[in-house]
Design brief:
The complex is a heterodimer of chains A (313) and B (138).
Chain A (H helix, E strand, L loop, with lengths): L1 H24 L3 H13 L12 H9 L2 H10 L15 H14 L13 H6 L3 H17 L42 H4 L14 H6 L22 E4 L7 E5 H5 L4 H4 L15 H5 L18 H4 E3 L3 H5 L1
Antiparallel strand pairs in A: 1-2, 2-3
Chain B lengths: L1 H22 L7 E4 L11 E4 H7 L2 H7 L13 H5 L19 H4 L9 E2 L3 H5 L7 H5 L1
Classes of the chains: A mainly alpha (313), B mainly alpha (138).
Chain lengths: 313, 138
């Protein structure tokens, strides 16, 4: 038993040593490229700029060195964030980019300026600027938005908190490597109209504009459902505008059987609906307040102003 | 009269407390955490991102064709059913979406997170929101 514990502690020590050693080795741009970038950039699969190919790298460098490193850190098109290795630090990614630029013959050396005095003379003056830019990017990636007295509002999220990446959303485990492989909502929503509530995007607009094309059928992308264009008007008590329920926007997403007859009896006047039950997740609240736009957007349902004569009664 | 004030004060305090609790997570609206069996099986709970799926499929595909009930944790999904092609397994089979060997892509929630719909109205108003700091540190 004692031997066993000794063995395990020895093993763990060895493993720690290995980790330390590998961490040290990873400081080298060439090694980082070999371990993380080479599988795609060596062969040029999936439109990756090929190592050593000046024509592949030049147009990308022209878009700005900062931009290049940022895309390598955050991911861009087929390129996964940090080349798919979440353990890499942003500065290590920048080193890898530097190394590949050297290979492409666009930068003369990727060694730090202090290492080779002779090299500094030959280097283009832009190199120093590029190094500063790398530092700025690393700082920007690491920087967290500063909270000030005015940013306090316990009921509202600031815009910078909208659609955070999974590792920062508070429910995904940042210690799980796969968390970093998931698509980030910000990337998915980049083209879609913004909305103050819910996912902070207007799903109906996105659908009608054709920005998203959710399948009607699990297997067949060509199949489409039948839309029902029938508005139901519900007169409400109090001074709120009456509710217009559009079947059209609902049948764009749902099947009749989703709501009828289990949630709503398909008969005029047969359903007694209240805001209290909606808030508690019943009736409209089965979806609205969970996935469809929340009840905070009163006027999206209460949209038909009452006649003045109605109010007088 | 006094008792009414006392009760209403209590409700107010409880409400503020839950609101503060809700602030701890910044999860996407409609993200569902399922922890029916995961914790017992020593796996991370599952995160189901509604937003990701609704970009690709209409609600009816899962909620009408595949028979998902409109209730977080109410479908009693387990890996056996998924392997048999039910529920998630109808798509996560390596043909429509990636297959089940990518365990940690779904089982990706912080350990100890209970089953719930994140950012929902109910969560904000009444239900306990997130594993307390104590739990998440464990």
């Amino acid at each position: 038993m004692i031997l066993n514990t000794k063995m395990t502690s020895f093993m763990s020590l060895m493993m720690m040593l290995c980790v330390c050693l590998s961490a040290k080795a990873a400081k080298n741009g060439q090694a980082i490229v070999k371990e993380n970038c080479a599988p795609c950039h060596e062969t040029g699969v999936m439109e990756a700029p090929k190592m050593g190919s000046k024509s592949d790298w030049e147009p990308r460098l022209k878009q700005g060195y900062r931009n290049m490193v940022k895309r390598a850190v955050d991911g861009y098109k087929n390129m996964p964030a940090k080349g798919g290795n979440p353990l890499l630090k942003p500065e290590e990614v920048a080193m890898a980019v530097d190394h590949m630029l050297v290979k492409a013959g666009l930068v003369e050396t990727d060694q730090p300026t202090t290492d080779k005095k002779s090299a500094t003379d030959k280097k283009p003056p832009t190199k120093k600027v590029e190094k500063d830019a790398t530092k700025a990017i690393v700082k920007a990636v690491k920087k967290k938005p500063k909270k000030t007295a005015n940013s306090f509002n316990r009921l509202m999220k600031s815009k910078s908190d909208w659609n955070p990446p999974p590792q920062e959303d508070g429910i995904h485990d940042p210690d799980n490597e796969s968390t970093y492989m998931l698509q980030t909502p910000r990337e998915a929503f980049s083209d879609i109209d913004k909305n103050p509530f819910g996912n902070h995007v207007d799903w109906v607009k996105a659908l009608n504009k054709g920005l998203i094309d959710p399948r009607f059928d699990r297997l067949d992308p060509e199949k489409s459902g039948i839309l029902m264009d029938l508005n139901i008007i519900r007169e409400v008590k109090g001074s709120m505008p009456d509710v217009v329920y559009p079947h059209k926007q609902h049948t764009q997403w749902l099947d009749c059987s989703n709501c009828h007859p289990s949630i709503f009896i398909p008969q005029k006047g047969a359903n007694s609906i209240s805001m209290a039950s909606i808030l508690m997740g019943k009736q409209c609240g089965v979806c609205h307040g969970k996935v469809a736009f929340p009840v905070a957007e009163c006027r999206r349902c209460h949209s038909l102003p009452k006649q003045k004569t109605d109010l007088a009664r | 009269m006094k008792s009414v004030i006392r009760v209403s004060c209590g409700i107010l305090i409880a409400l503020t407390f839950t609101l503060f609790e809700a602030e701890k997570t910044n999860a996407e609206y409609g993200d569902i955490v399922m922890n029916n069996y995961s914790a017992k099986a020593e796996m991370r709970p599952v995160v189901f991102p509604h937003w990701f799926h609704r970009i690709r499929f209409q609600c009816k595909v899962c909620h009408a064709d595949l028979g998902f009930k409109f209730q977080a944790g109410g479908n009693e999904i387990n890996m056996l059913k998924i392997i048999d092609g039910e529920y998630c397994g109808a798509c996560h089979n390596g043909e429509i979406a990636w297959a089940i060997e990518n365990c940690n892509l779904c089982h990706s929630a912080k350990p100890g997170t209970p089953t719930q719909v994140h950012d929902s109205t109910i969560q904000k108003l009444v239900a306990p929101t997130f594993a307390t700091d104590k739990q998440s540190k464990q």
